[in-house]
Predict the 3D structure of the following.
Amino acid sequence: MKRLILAAALLAAGAVGLFAQPTTAKPAQAPSVPRPKSPDELKALQAWQAALQANDADAIIKAVDDIVTRFPNTDFKSMVLETEAEAYKQKADWAKAQIYADMALTANPQSFQAALMLADIPAKHTGEHDLDKEESLTKAEGYAHKAIELVTAQAKPPQFSDEQWSDYQKQIVGQAQDDLGLISGNRKNWDSAIAAFKTAIAATAEPAYKVHLANALMQNGKLDDALGVCDQILTEPKLHPQIKAASQDIEVQIAAFLQAQGKNDAAIAILDKVLADSGLPSRVKANATRIRDTATKAKGQ
């Protein structure tokens, strides 16, 4: 969720840079704009801002800990805690990411970024056999809806242009809907998952959301529709290698389903297209080759 870091950096640039001379006086025309209250707080916020711009997770964590320890009543408390939570996400420390996202939401119950993280982490990292699976998914579902509600109602911050803010709102809604799709998928409610992924893609057509949709369609038995989505993904320019591999892996799984149904010619046609890619990851290539050999042998019997 690098968009959170970028948005925070933009807000910080506007707030910290605008008020280079700290003061305790209330601004005459923008009372809601956060302000550093002392030279020392300003210096700490500038260190945080530099860490954000460098996208240095460890430096962000250190800077935020310094701010909330030395300046517990800072106007920037929720904002900086959100970025610490995101920094822990970058380090794959999901437990700490949730802790700091929860602290951010406590500091500012209107923080759609914090609510989104509290949805996103369990949506992506709750295991099928976790003892608290349903409790975790139910909480995540609530936070996803909360994030959508909050960002939709949020007035445009002055640091954003109208276009930037509209795009950012769509990104938040898209990710929240994608999380709702993942939550439904974890519950094996594929119809609900498909609807949520389609809504996410309508908000912002992220290739990852399309991969999730293709997988949900496949799991729901809609193999032709899943193949169609994979075809759309694989024609996109500058496709990330992981997204490409995930799409091809879904195509191989679809071929396996077809082969198991005795539709060997259809399976072979899909696999030949996949195997024609010289840059195919070794794991996907091995699975595709194995399934193709099985389909070929089945045809000869």
In short: Residues 18-31 have pLDDT under 50 and may be disordered. The chain is about 75% helix and 0% strand.
